[in-house]
Amino acid sequence: MKHLGLKILLVLGLFLVIDQMGGLLLDTLRDHSPDGRYHKAKYTLEHCDEDVVVIGSSRAEINYVSQIIEDSLRMSCWNAGRGGQGMPYFRAVQEGILARYSPKVVILNIDDNDLEGAMAYEHAGFLRPFYSTHPEIRPVLDKTSKFEWLLLKSRLYAYNSSFYYLIRPYLVPGLDGKAEDKGWKPRPGTMDYDPGKKPESEPAKTPLNPEAVAAFDYMVNKFLEKDCQVFFVVSPNYGRSIGSSSAIEYLKKTSEKTGIPVFVYSADTSYITHPELYVDPEHLNIDGAQKFTRELVQQIKPYIQSSKQHSSNDEKVYKGY
User: Fold this and answer.
1) pLDDT(267) > 90
2) CA 160 to chain centre
3) Which of 48, 64, 270, 295 lies at a 20 to 30 A Cα distance from 106?
4) For the chain, what is the total number of helices (H) and then of strands (E)?
5) SS3 108
């Protein structure tokens, strides 16, 4: 029994060494990635200090051109959108950003059904490699599973199912956008489509998910408490007109309570009936993203200018002018 116990301890020790050394290697790959998902996540959590931050899923990542926002608003911009994500990821990103600074402007791209489905905490598990160094995101990731906090003692587990995205930037650079794109992920090309297809009719409404609504409310209130100017935006999809989903109605109610402007493009026929603007039915191509960003910026610019004017007047009053 004594020899067996020693062998078990030896095996466990070996596994521990492999886990820690393997984790150290993967951390090194993550921290030196030239671009890609982990490069973007690390920059978002640890370095971004831009005036304008875009938060959302793949529609945010692909539809918002950071450089156009910068050129038009004369403010720096970082697109923190991440494909395949939802409210848990948005909350984690928010906590990581606000732990360091408060952006002047936050653009929240909320999909027409973002507040209706289950909270996909497992998708936010993409951020596991930052769990040990970023205590502010732990409350979100801990909800992935009952024993998540314990499993994350393993450094290899933190990269579970993520090895492909960790290595891909070294083999095929630029697939998730180049560093100079400032978080925007351009998608070239045009989707295949049926010229005779008409937009789908308005779908039946789905009830809101109370947990998603609570997370959304918390996120909005926290940005407002930090004096961030917030905008709600619903991106368009090709061939699908959605003007009053449960999520969109809730955005409008929140807008009435808080004064946050909301811009709904999901029923805009200048987008939803123009396949040449899309790379697939849910994402704009480069031309579509540029058009969308330019038009959106023109809508939000008066609010930002008005805010700057009020701030200037307040400062003059404070100084006794």
Assistant:
1) yes
2) 21
3) 270
4) 13, 7
5) strand
pLDDT at 178 over 80: yes
Q: Indicate the pTM of the whole model.
A: 0.90
Q: In 3D, which of 29, 34, 58 has the Cα closest to residue 163?
A: 29
Separation CA 222–CA 106 (nearest Å): 12
Q: What DSSP element (H or E) covers 53?
A: strand 52-55
Confidence (pLDDT) at 73: 97
Report d(CA 112, CA 114) in Å as an integer: 6
Please name the helix (run of DSSP H) or strand (run of DSSP E) that holds residue 279, with its range, or none: strand 278-280
pLDDT at 277 over 70: yes
- Pairing mode of beta strands 278-280, 283-284: antiparallel
DSSP structural state of residue 33: -
Q: What DSSP state is assigned to residue 262?
A: E
d(CA 171, CA 177): 14
Task: Label the pairing between strands 229-234 and 262-264.
Answer: parallel
Find, among 75, 82, 284, 54, the residue nearest to 186 by Cα: 284
Residues 6+ positions from 25 with CB-CB distance below 8 Å: none
Structure tokens at 148: 């998540």
Cβ(57)–Cβ(234) under 8 Å?
Answer: no
The pLDDT tens digits of the residues spanning 77-116 come to: 999 999 999 999 999 999 999 999 999 999 999 999 999 9
**Residue whose C-alpha is closest to residue 109's, from 220, 229, 221, 232:** 232
pLDDT at 77: 98
- Give the DSSP H or E segment for 278: strand 278-280
How many residues are there in the chain? Answer: 321
Alpha carbon 240 to chain centroid distance? 23
Whole-angstrom distance, CA of residue 183 vs CA of residue 52: 12
Write the DSSP string, 181-241: GTT-----S-----TTPPPBPPPPP-PPPHHHHHHHHHHHHHHHHTT-EEEEEE--BTTB-
